[in-house]
Design goal:
There is one protein chain. It is globular and about 110 Å long. The chain is mainly alpha-helical. The protein is built from 13 helices and 15 strands. Helix 5 crosses helix 10. It starts with a helix and ends with a helix. A 3-stranded mixed beta sheet has the order 1-5-4. A two-stranded antiparallel ribbon has the order 2-3. A hairpin with a 6-residue loop joins strand 13 and strand 14.
Length: about 550
């Protein structure tokens, strides 16, 4: 108990940041010095150096060449991330983490980050109604709470001035922070002049970093929800869509059903019907050569199943997932959407889950689900606006985990060079801070502190899927159950008392009958006393 109290106190004290942009660094001083090494309040030193948690150091970026898909250099802030903004950041020691080393690495807990703990992500459809509603309420809380730790950039680094004299950052709510991050990693590159952009660039899709990038994205999202709610047992649920015939999470009780007046909108009975989307108009940003600034752009759109069925004939099947998991190679040249027999390209949806060959006429697997949702989620840059995105990518991550456990690949199997820009092993993920290299997350989630319920062995699954929900129900309803138990006990005592009283009465009645029977028997015996006979008659 003491350890948990220390952990909670530490999280409350630390002004921590896990990704773009740390609020303490988003100012003229940070831009001018290009240094983001904030003080850890636990000891008052930069990066918690006095406590041995970390130190401020030069950022070393990979010099390995990237592929030919992006032929430019020096025109986009995301190139050689994060050097356009910072060239000195905190390097955390041991199990410490966070932008100022004030937190712990994924999977570690406690004041000294020495306790490893594994959380289990569960199928949304198997959660209890109470747990399902808690998840929905957490999503809505994040959508309506301004992030205390992070801000977003509303302009390019060049627009902020050579010495950072014109910092252009903006507050954003916790949920939309991650929508913006996904947009920033996938947006087109500005080449100069309105409408002049390069579209064949994406730091989170269409190449090797697709799976590691989204793994880190989910871990950060999960961590932010825990900090926001104070529920450190929270885990992201997943949607197992294999062989599904429809969007079975799209109900008013879960992610929102159809609006009866407009099938493209969410039902007014769902809290998501009031959500406003951001970063959903890439053509508009490109024509004006501006970044998404988190302004609301209209309602969340979704009309699952009413899509172009020539592009997506059906939702992915179990057989297709098995085919992908059994592919031997993680990625193959040219390590983009034209790769053949590549597990990454098949699971991402640019290659057939039946032949393994790249296909341009259809969207399969991951991509197919996005198209199937037929709305906000079908546009890459704004897709994270729809909370189904979280459920979908959690399940994609579980398939990635299955492949890693099946093949146990060495780190050398991840592309070290010649992948599209931002996807090589040594590249830092855009736009995360602290910095994470792609290759560092080419490893099983057993090292990251989480597991998937359906990947547990049968005994563990029974505990997780049957016993744990029962115990959770008891925990949440113990007052009612205690009252019901006491009431039941009183009723039981009364029933027993009535039964005992009836039993005693019956025994007395039986005793009297026996006594009466005994007297009659005596009368049948021969008697030598005339007095006895008279007495019997008198008694009778």
């Amino acid at each position: 108990m003491r350890r948990w109290c220390l952990l909670v106190l530490l999280l409350l004290l630390v002004d921590c940041c896990l990704c773009q942009f740390p609020r303490p660094c988003a100012n003229s001083e940070g831009l001018r010095t290009k240094e983001c090494c904030p003080v850890w309040e636990g000891d008052g030193s930069a990066c918690g150096a006095l406590s041995g948690r970390g130190f401020c150091t030069e950022v070393e970026v990979s010099d390995e060449p990237h592929g030919p898909q992006y032929p430019y250099s020096g025109i986009d802030d995301r190139e050689r991330w994060p050097l356009a903004f910072f060239n000195r950041t905190c390097h955390c020691a041991g199990n410490y983490g966070g932008f100022n080393c004030g937190e712990c690495r994924f999977g570690y807990w406690g004041a000294n980050c020495a306790e490893y703990r594994e959380s289990v992500r569960q199928n949304l459809l198997t959660l209890s109604p109470v747990e399902q509603q808690k998840f929905i309420s957490y999503l809505n809380l994040a959508k309506n709470t301004i992030s205390q730790d992070y801000v977003i950039s509303t302009a390019t680094r060049a627009e902020m001035g050579e010495n950072g004299e014109n910092p252009m950052f903006s507050d954003i709510n916790t949920y939309d922070l991650f929508v913006w991050m996904h947009y920033f990693a996938t947006r087109d590159a500005f080449l100069g002049g309105k409408g002049n952009v390069w579209t064949d660039i994406d730091f989170a899709h269409e190449s090797s970093a697709f799976l590691p990038w989204h793994r880190v994205f989910l871990l950060h999202w999960e961590n932010e929800i825990r900090k926001l709610t104070g529920d450190f047992n929270f885990t992201i649920p997943y949607w197992d869509w294999r062989d599904a015939q429809s969007c079975d999470v799209c109900t008013d009780a879960l992610m929102g059903g159809h609006n009866p007046l407009n099938p493209n909108l969410i039902s007014p009975a769902s809290v998501f019907s009031s959500w406003k989307v951001i970063c959903s108009q890439p053509e508009e940003y490109n024509s004006r050569e501006v970044l998404c600034n988190s302004t609301g752009e209209g309602p969340l759109l979704r009309n699952p199943g009413n899509h172009n069925r020539r592009q997506v004939p059906r939702l992915p099947t179990k057989a297709e997932v098995e085919f992908a998991v059994n592919l031997q190679q993680y990625d193959t040249a040219p390590m983009d959407k034209f790769s053949n027999m590549s597990f990454r390209n098949v699971i991402e949806g640019f290659a057939s889950p039946e032949s393994g060959l790249a296909i341009s006429s259809q969207n399969m697997m991951h991509n197919g689900l996005h198209v199937f949702m037929n709305g906000t989620m079908s546009s890459v840059q704004g897709s994270a606006n729809d909370p189904v995105f979280i459920l979908h990518h959690a399940f994609i991550d579980s398939i990635y985990e299955r492949w890693l456990r099946t093949h146990q690949p060495p780190r050398s199997d991840y592309p070290r060079a010649n992948a599209p820009i931002g996807h090589n092993d040594g590249c830092y993920m855009v736009p995360f801070m602290p910095l994470y290299r792609n290759g560092d997350y080419f490893l099983t989630n057993k090292n990251l502190g989480y597991e998937y319920a359906y990947l547990l062995d049968p005994g563990q699954r029974f505990v997780q899927e049957v016993l744990t929900p029962v115990l959770e129900h008891v925990k949440q309803n113990w007052k009612w159950l205690l009252g019901a138990g006491l009431f039941g006990a009183v009723i039981a005592v009364l029933i027993v008392a009535v039964f005992v009283a009836a039993r005693r009465k019956m025994k007395r009645s039986q005793r009297k009958k026996r006594e009466s029977s005994f007297g009659e028997t005596q009368l049948l015996l021969p008697s030598s006393s005339e007095e006895g006979s008279a007495s019997y008659q008198t008694h009778l």
